[in-house]
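If your schedule permits, I should be very grateful for your opinion on a structural question. Please examine both parts with care and let me know of anything in them that strikes you as inconsistent. The record follows directly beneath this note:
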Amino acid sequence: MKRTTQLRNLIKGGKLLVAPGAFDGLSARLVEKAGFPLIYATGGGIARSMGYPDMGLVTMTEVIGRVKNMVDVTTVPIIADADTGYGNALNLIRAVKEFESAGAAGIHIEDQVTPKKCGHYDGHLLISEEEMIKKIEAAIDARSDPDFLIIARTDAREVEGLNGAIMRGKLYAAAGADMLFVEAPRSEEEIREIASKIETPLLINMFKGGKTPLIPMARLEELGYRVAIVPSSLHLAAIYAMKSLLDVLRLEGTTSRFETMVSFKERDDLVDLGFYRDLENKYLSLEEDTNE
């Protein structure tokens, strides 16, 4: 079954899908091996893993490369962060085709101006509702697979308030978006109000340290949310672990005391070393040809 169809069926199942954020092939493998049915290709995580802030500094080509890498080494659906579509409606048309070609099961696009910035930063600028509606229509027309998910995100909560964000969400749903993502609600009451006023399937962003409070996943499911992305936690944990190890190495000149690591074998098992060894034995001759 196509991953796009897998994702559609999962959403129709009525259960909340928790999608941890991956930023490369290794983190995507970890998410799948942990048992999650869905992976979120986090734009912010990809940017920061490249050493940049989440301010629209990473190109579509760079993001597509990461997404394709994640797709190639996993089997579950992947929702990708496509920012604003990297420009106007024409840029978005190309982006849809490229994300589809890379194997993503869906993307979310947002109504910020280009270049965008993290939804939990301050100082957002929005395009008009009319322009965003046209971009959604362009994205829908551009996809070749009708199951490819088009998720419309609005960052209007900061700029126009909750009512403005909900109004935009309804307009985007009417334009044909398959799912809606109201970024950065400020309280559980706002999260509940969004769910009560928007009938289209909803995605929500859950991570520690942002403007949205952490709500138990069971409660989000009760409210009717269908996807909860957890974009930053895996990356933040990796940064913490790397910083901790580097401190030990700098101070002690060895990592022997640092025990918060997987083993050499566990690392190789994660990337299927045995599978590639079997291929090597099947297709490659490791002995020199003595007849020459």
